[in-house]
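Session log. Operator J.P. requested a structure for one protein chain; no other inputs attached. Running the standard single-chain path with token output.
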Amino acid sequence: MAAGHQADYHIDSAASQASFQVRLLWLEHIGGNFTQVLGEVAPGPSPDSLVVDAVIPVQSVSMPSKRMRQWLLAPAFFDADHHPTIHFVSDPVAQAELDSGGILTGNLTLRGVTAPVHFAVQPAHCEEQSSTPCHLTLHGRVQRSTFGMTGDHLPLSDSVELNLSITLQRENR
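Structure written below.
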């Protein structure tokens, strides 16, 4: 993103998604996608800093089978009836770190538990004065047990790989 700090961006939900993978029985990976990522990127508290505020509706999860999807939405995993969203709020990040790539830290709330997380950010060269969408790619890992997902600990790895493909659109003000 070009220098300057007054731009606000919203996450283009139709063009953004989050995917995950977890190892099953130490042999194969199972994964899925969240087809909706909502939120915004706004100026942070200091010049040239930004704060990411993203929400993922749990019901937007897509899996290879209906049975697996129901398993993930159940109380042992996402508990979608009681915790319908996943929420991430970043610590302020310098725009230069998004340009060159770096680490995005913040807090993730999942199943009512908030814990610190960090994502590796691929370099993204977004022009602040342009109406062209900006694409961010983030990679990270979380531990299921941190968020109370302790069921099926023998067949499933505790470590979950998260990948986010986020498209930002500049707010028209």
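Operator note: The longest strand covers residues 156-170.
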